[in-house]
Design a protein that fits this description.
mainly alpha, elongated, Multihaem_cyt_sf, RH_dom
Amino acid sequence: MNILMFHVFFNNKPFTGGVPSEARQCDYTGQYYCSNCHWNDLAVVPARVIHNWDFEPRKVSRYNMRYLALMLGRPVLKLREINPLLFNYVEELVEIRKLRQDILLMKPYFITCKEAMEARLLLQLQDRQHFVENDDMYSLQDLLDVSSGRLGASLTDIHTMFAKHIKLDCERCQAKGFVCELCKEGDILFPFDSHTSVCQDCAAVFHRDCYYDNSTSCPRCMRMSLRKQAQEPEDATWQQ
């Protein structure tokens, strides 16, 4: 595009005087702006973070600087769709994703626990409400905090607090744990324990080694299937 014909995005005025040096490029949009609309303000650009894990502030226009500031804390970045390969290169993101997945597994315990509700445990994440709703949406602020190490530290502390309530402090939550039906040994298991595997069909929890060494179907699924089969003849007889 001929730079002399380019209209400024924000105030829709053409450049005057025909001097190309008046144009300033915004790193966020790639568009050119006059010096009235582009003051060489610096901001972290989301695309550079997502595709290159690059947090170096770049020059952006005034309008886009305000827009980026407005969107900073909003969880609008679905990393697994935009750049799933990022998880292969940024170990901290893998750790954060696991912590978030664990917290989502803990959430059902809290919403059915009177003590947890009274203690408002889930409000520990009130500044990142999306963390108790899904595990794949991020804000730019989340990614900044991942890079600095701040998010990993705070989320680990919250994870430890949540696990302590469920496994140690609350008898009601403890009672919702599982015994491995394959070996019937060891401590009570929970779906967020690092050494466990969860049946995708019935959500039963097993020791990971037991689950992958098992050559048969999930014992709980088999039991539920047999129970269903036993009920079917009774239902058929009743209908006759």
